[in-house]
């Protein structure tokens, strides 16, 4: 036991006394390890003020940051079959779902809302990495189809924020079939002449990247997000080589022609608004 | 020399006994000495000396082997099916193309980087009908396996597939695909050139095609690399083929943190043709010869040919708009069984 734990900590505790000190008063940056005052971090949209690292964003935060004045309407998503395979590994899949629902207060790994972005109507779908690593199962597919239908109905662009570990193994082939299903959802939006914009956040991999997440009219990523098909570990094991610096990061993808732009979080809403405005100027003129 | 899988050992033993007996009976017959034939196998001692013949023993054993083969293959476990689906003597995509497609003219290249031999394809005729045919090819021996990269395609392969699907669309040709791949290649170069985007575009092209897409899973349907070519109007699967979101080996190491649980994972993943038909995720199962496709490749290929020929006319009768709508409805309905 060091003097830090045995002496300083109790001392700090007594010092702070009974005043309520929330555990999350300070947050450590995952990248530069500096301590950041949580209130400040919140103001910076979870971007480290020291090193610019984009920390994970919760779904509610993401929605507040994306819509004008933080105002939006969430829509209820269609129900999907629960544990269609009766899957069990070391734990029952149905139990995992329950745990994740309790932990995240979300129903599934996708949330859909509509509102205004840069003064224009938009439908925004946000993937929840905090829910079973944002994996894609039937519920996510249903959700994306619902988002696409809503966009068509409202004559609004569809913006998707991706964050996913890929397919959800516990749903087997039903999970894999979400690749064509979500692709068809995107096609509905494109067929209606509406912009489909993808914002890739850390991390986006596997079947999600290899379907709707790479089909945007415009492909945006947050800085330094891990984006790829195969995970870095799988690749390392296969080719038995060390991976190049910055491999599968946003800037690497931009350099390799896979993205239009890398946009910092505080600038995201403005950029989305500009893009929609330019892409839809003709439609706006027609409607006027 | 036939390759036997572990669970086929009892059958292998019977068959080698039969071969041995056959070898023994041949010189005996040419000698013209009936006594020699009978004292060769020690088993003869228990038999009635006058009624015993090697031929009888051979036919008795053959019957037993056949019965055992039938019984084994009638109730293969999912893990056994994985092994059968990957059997090295199972017919591969090029075998199907050579036998089912006449006037085959291979087409090459993605027009932006290279020609990926893991995905083969081109123009030809199926039962007289001009078609575009595309397949993932694993290769049959060391040289061809290396050439085809064990059926693991890079972005160029999926971009070639997309190009061929779009070509088919422009000229009103139905597309036949033969899928047999462990998955897309996980490599540095593949990622650098946009593996995910290439797969996504291939799926998108299949789903947008104004012509019928008819996919057959002939061996291993490995994850996204398979979906890239199997997002069709009709998806057929051979009886002992598999189609899975992840290999049982990888699933075992992720979810059980132990590579030895592959057989348990194979069961949990529900990756057999029978399971997938039950879930309504595929349309039709094509029966294989007793003992699996590798025992009679020609009969297997012919059976697939008949199934494809039977499925095609109804699809060809639809106009492009109706075809695309039907396709969309098919995929949107998937996995919703049992929901109100």
From TrEMBL, chain A:
Swiss-Prot/TrEMBL keywords: ATP-binding, Cytoplasm, Fatty acid biosynthesis, Fatty acid metabolism, Ligase, Lipid biosynthesis, Lipid metabolism, Metal-binding, Nucleotide-binding, Transferase, Zinc, Zinc-finger
InterPro entries documented for this protein: AcCoA_carboxyl_beta, Acetyl_CoA_COase_Trfase_b_su, ClpP/crotonase-like_dom_sf, COA_CT_N, Znf-ACC
Source organism, top-level taxon: Bacteria
Domain (CoA carboxyltransferase N-terminal) ranges: 25-288
Names of required cofactors: Zn(2+)
Reactions that this protein is recorded to catalyse: N(6)-carboxybiotinyl-L-lysyl-[protein] + acetyl-CoA = N(6)-biotinyl-L-lysyl-[protein] + malonyl-CoA
EC number: 2.1.3.15
Keyword Metal-binding in annotation: yes
Free-text function comment from the UniProt entry: Component of the acetyl coenzyme A carboxylase (ACC) complex. Biotin carboxylase (BC) catalyzes the carboxylation of biotin on its carrier protein (BCCP) and then the CO(2) group is transferred by the transcarboxylase to acetyl-CoA to form malonyl-CoA.
Assembly information from the UniProt record: Acetyl-CoA carboxylase is a heterohexamer composed of biotin carboxyl carrier protein (AccB), biotin carboxylase (AccC) and two subunits each of ACCase subunit alpha (AccA) and ACCase subunit beta (AccD).
The protein's name: Acetyl-coenzyme A carboxylase carboxyl transferase subunit beta
Source organism of the structure: Rhizosaccharibacter radicis
Automatic annotation (TrEMBL), chain B:
Subcellular location: Cytoplasm
EC id: 2.1.3.15
EC class of the enzyme, as a word: transferase
Biased composition (Low complexity): 31-49
SUPFAM superfamilies: ClpP/crotonase (SSF52096)
Keywords: ATP-binding, Cytoplasm, Fatty acid biosynthesis, Fatty acid metabolism, Ligase, Lipid biosynthesis, Lipid metabolism, Nucleotide-binding, Transferase
Region (Disordered): 23-51
Alphabetized InterPro entries for the sequence: Acetyl_CoA_COase_a_su, ClpP/crotonase-like_dom_sf, COA_CT_C
An MF annotation (GO) of this entry: acetyl-CoA carboxylase activity
UniProt catalytic activity: N(6)-carboxybiotinyl-L-lysyl-[protein] + acetyl-CoA = N(6)-biotinyl-L-lysyl-[protein] + malonyl-CoA
Top-level taxon: Bacteria
Pathway: Lipid metabolism; malonyl-CoA biosynthesis; malonyl-CoA from acetyl-CoA: step 1/1
Primary location recorded for the protein, binned into one broad class: cytoplasm
Membrane keyword on record: no
CoA carboxyltransferase C-terminal domain segment(s): 61-314
Family indicated by similarity: Belongs to the AccA family.
Subunit architecture: Acetyl-CoA carboxylase is a heterohexamer composed of biotin carboxyl carrier protein (AccB), biotin carboxylase (AccC) and two subunits each of ACCase subunit alpha (AccA) and ACCase subunit beta (AccD).
Function: Component of the acetyl coenzyme A carboxylase (ACC) complex. First, biotin carboxylase catalyzes the carboxylation of biotin on its carrier protein (BCCP) and then the CO(2) group is transferred by the carboxyltransferase to acetyl-CoA to form malonyl-CoA.
Protein name: Acetyl-coenzyme A carboxylase carboxyl transferase subunit alpha
Organism in which the protein naturally occurs: Rhizosaccharibacter radicis
High-level lineage: Bacteria, Pseudomonadati, Pseudomonadota, Alphaproteobacteria, Acetobacterales
Name of the gene encoding the protein in the UniProt record: accA
């Amino acid at each position: 036991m060091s003097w830090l734990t045995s002496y300083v900590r109790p001392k700090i505790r007594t010092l702070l006394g009974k005043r309520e000190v929330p555990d999350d008063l300070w947050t450590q940056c995952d990248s530069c390890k500096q301590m950041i005052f949580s209130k400040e971090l919140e103001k910076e949209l979870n971007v480290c003020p020291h090193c610019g690292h984009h920390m994970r964003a919760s779904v509610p935060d993401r929605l507040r940051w994306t819509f004008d004045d933080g105002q939006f309407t969430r829509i209820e998503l269609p129900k999907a079959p629960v544990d269609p395979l009766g899957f069990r590994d070391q734990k029952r899949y149905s139990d995992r779902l329950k745990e994740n629902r309790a932990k995240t207060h979300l129903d599934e790994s996708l949330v859909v809302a509509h509102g205004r972005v840069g003064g224009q109507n938009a439908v925004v779908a946000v993937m929840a990495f905090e829910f079973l690593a944002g994996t894609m199962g039937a519920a996510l597919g249903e959700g994306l189809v619902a988002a696409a239908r809503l966009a068509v109905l409202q004559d609004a662009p569809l913006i998707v924020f991706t964050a996913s570990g890929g397919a959800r193994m516990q749903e087997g082939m039903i999970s894999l079939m979400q690749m064509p299903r979500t692709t068809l959802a995107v096609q509905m939006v494109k067929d209606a002449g509406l912009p489909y914009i993808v914002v890739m956040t850390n991390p986006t991999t596997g079947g999600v990247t290899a379907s709707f997440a790479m089909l945007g009219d415009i492909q945006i990523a947050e800085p330094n997000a891990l984006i790829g098909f195969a995970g870095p570990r799988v690749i390392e094991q296969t080719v038995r080589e060390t991976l190049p610096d910055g491999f599968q990061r946003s800037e690497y993808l931009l350099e390799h022609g896979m993205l239009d732009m890398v946009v910092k979080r505080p600038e995201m809403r403005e950029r989305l608004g500009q893009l929609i405005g330019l892409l839809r100027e003709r439609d706006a003129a027609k409607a006027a | 020399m036939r390759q036997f899988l572990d669970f086929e050992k009892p059958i292998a033993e019977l068959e080698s006994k039969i071969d041995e007996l056959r070898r023994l009976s041949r010189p005996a017959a040419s000698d013209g000495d009936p006594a020699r034939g009978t004292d060769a196998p020690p088993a003869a001692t228990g038999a009635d000396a006058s009624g015993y013949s090697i031929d009888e023993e051979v036919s008795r054993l053959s019957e037993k082997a056949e019965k055992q083969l039938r019984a084994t293959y009638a109730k293969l476990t999912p893990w056994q099916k994985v092994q059968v689906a990957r059997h090295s003597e199972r017919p591969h995509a090029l075998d199907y193309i050579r036998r089912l497609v006449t006037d085959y003219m291979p087409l090459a290249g993605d027009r932006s980087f290279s020609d990926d031999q893991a995905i083969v394809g081109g123009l030809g005729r199926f039962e007289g009908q001009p078609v575009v045919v595309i397949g993932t090819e694993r290769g049959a021996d060391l040289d061809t396996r290396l050439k085809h990269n064990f059926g693991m395609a890079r972005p160029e392969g999926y971009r070639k597939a997309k190009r061929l699907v779009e070509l088919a669309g422009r000229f009103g040709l139905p597309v036949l695909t033969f899928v047999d791949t462990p998955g897309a290649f996980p490599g540095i170069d593949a990622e650098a050139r946009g593996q995910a985007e290439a797969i996504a575009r291939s799926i998108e092209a299949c789903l947008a095609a104004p012509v019928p897409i008819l996919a057959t899973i002939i061996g291993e349907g490995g994850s996204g690399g398979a979906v890239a070519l199997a997002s069709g109007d009709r998806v057929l699967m051979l009886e002992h083929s598999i189609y899975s979101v992840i290999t049982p080996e990888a699933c075992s190491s992720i979810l059980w943190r132990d590579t030895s649980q592959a057989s348990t994972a194979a069961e949990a993943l529900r990756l057999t043709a029978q399971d997938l038909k039950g879930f309504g995720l595929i349309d039709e199962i094509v029966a294989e010869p007793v003992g699996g496709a590798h025992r009679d490749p020609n009969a297997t290929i012919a059976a697939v040919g008949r199934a494809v020929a039977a499925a095609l006319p109804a699809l060809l009768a639809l106009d492009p708009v109706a075809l695309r709508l039907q396709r969309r409805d098919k995929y949107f309905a998937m996995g919703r069984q049992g929901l109100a």
